[in-house]
Amino acid sequence: MSYTSSSAHRRACKPNLNQALSKTRVARKHPQPSSDFSRDVEKGKWFAKNLTYIQKLQQYEQAFTRATQQQYPLNTTQRNQLRQEQQRLGIKNEDVAPIEARVRAEIEAYLQKLQQYEEAFTRATQQQYPLSATQRNQLRQEQQVLGLKDENIAPIENRIQVEIEAYVQKLEQYEQALIQTIEHEYPFSEEVRKELKRYQQILELGDEEVAEIEEKVVRQIEINQTQIQLLSTFEPPEIATQSPIFSSQFVSNQKTPKIKPVKTNESLIPSIVALLLIVVSGIFGLFVKQLRSQPVLPIFSSNSTPTPSPTVSATQPQRTLANLSPGWVIKTNNDISLGNNQSLPRGTFLEVIEKKSNPNPASGSFLVSMRVCANKSTQTPANPNNPAVTTSVPANSKPLPATVLLNSSQVNRFGIVLQSDAPNPCRTVTQPPVTEPSDTSPT
């Protein structure tokens, strides 16, 4: 090939090369959209076009959630209402199914957490009741791990505590019936055994529980009878008369000194015997009084019918938040905020006035109206016109009102109910005026 032909060939190819370079520069300045970018654009167009439909799906999800909060699982009436709502919104079944499945999964997970806490609370009460501070701390840690709020666990704790109190009361009722029956007849006849068995079935108590109660009562009565028999058979020691110390067989050729025997005061022996009889009679009378001080139940016999249950229990029931009554005193174990720069300090005593229903019944809690009692450690006048009335208020906060209204969940978490044997710090005792003794010395 000649040089001329090669030059001509280069001139013919140069325009094509220039066109390719020009296209490359344009491609670099304006790149073509990728496949992901195209999908995003199409998705945005779809959302803009179906925004109204998405809002309808959200409305149906809210309606389904409200229905499950009222009752779960859903009943037939709720199902029909949701179908009508779906038809009104114009939503397809394939779009409704994922919404309902997701809400159901959340509900099942929540119910599973509640069941786990209930099992933990039941185990704690079976170990010890009322619960100790250590058990309370462990349950609070379990609550935090499960992510449950106080209003979620309050209905569970209240229900179990009520069941325990009712169970303890049944045990006490059967024990009192057993004591009253033993006073009239023991060992029991066949007819009495049948009556006790019938009363056990009325109280819904098991055979093991009844056997433990009977063993405890019989053992206590036998111990008391043994003590009485020991006291009744006790004999005072005899006081022997003193004899002469010296004898003629030990002293020869000497006169035996005349020593007058000491006379024993024999009148003391009847006094000692009478004193012992008085002591034995007093102990026996005290034992009989303790048995008869319990609520009287009818004597079981073949001709009488068992009473449903005694109306009065032997001992005072344990004071808890579940059976809160007016006049009881609650001591705070932590600060409780009242708002408006006011708070109840730790160690404040509150006297219960009345229980009130909660405006939100779904929470499972109630309201408690209480009077703020004086606390000697931090006493600040609550009424400037009456300095005698004091209340427990920190020095840098406003004086507290005479009464406060707290939620039962706050009281259960930050308060302790004082038992009946504890002194009532809310009762004021008026001391009698001290009078100076009159001067009776002669002038």
Chart the SSEs and their pairings:
Elements: H1 3-29, H2 35-49, H3 51-70, H4 76-89, H5 93-127, H6 133-146, H7 150-184, H8 190-203, H9 207-232, H10 268-292, E1 329-332, E2 336-339, E3 342-344, E4 349-357, E5 366-372, E6 379-381, E7 390-392, E8 403-407, H11 408-414, E9 415-417
Antiparallel strand pairs: 1-4, 1-9, 2-3, 4-5, 5-8, 6-7
Helix pairs in contact: 3-4, 3-5, 5-6, 5-7, 7-8, 7-9, 9-10
Question: Which labels suit this protein?
Answer:
443 residues; alpha+beta; two-stranded antiparallel sheet; 11 helices; 9 strands; elongated; disordered N terminus
Q: What does this molecule look like?
A:
The chain is α+β, with helices and mostly antiparallel strands. Helix content is 52%, strand content 9%. It has helices at residues 3-29, 35-49, 51-70, 76-89, 93-127, 133-146, 150-184, 190-203, 207-232, 268-292, 408-414; strands at 329-332, 336-339, 342-344, 349-357, 366-372, 379-381, 390-392, 403-407, 415-417. A hairpin with an 8-residue loop joins strand 6 and strand 7 (390-392). Helix 3 (51-70) runs antiparallel to helix 4 (76-89) and helix 9 runs antiparallel to helix 10. Mean pLDDT is 74; it is low at 1-6, 26-30, 242-252, 296-314, 380-384, 386-393 and 439-443.
As a percent range, the share of strand residues is 5-15%
* pLDDT < 50 stretches: 1-6, 26-30, 242-252, 296-314, 380-384, 386-393, 439-443
Main beta sheet, described? 5 strands, antiparallel
- Residue-averaged pLDDT: 74
Q: How many H/I helices? A: 11
What is the quaternary state of this protein? single chain
- String of helices and strands: HHHHHHHHHHEEEEEEEEHE
Class computed from helices, strands and strand pairing: alpha+beta
Task: Tally the beta strands.
Answer: 9
Helix content: 40-55%
Rg, Å, rounded:
45 Å
Distance between the termini: 166 Å
In the sheet with the most strands, the strands line up as 8-5-4-1-9
Q: Can you tell me the overall shape?
A: elongated
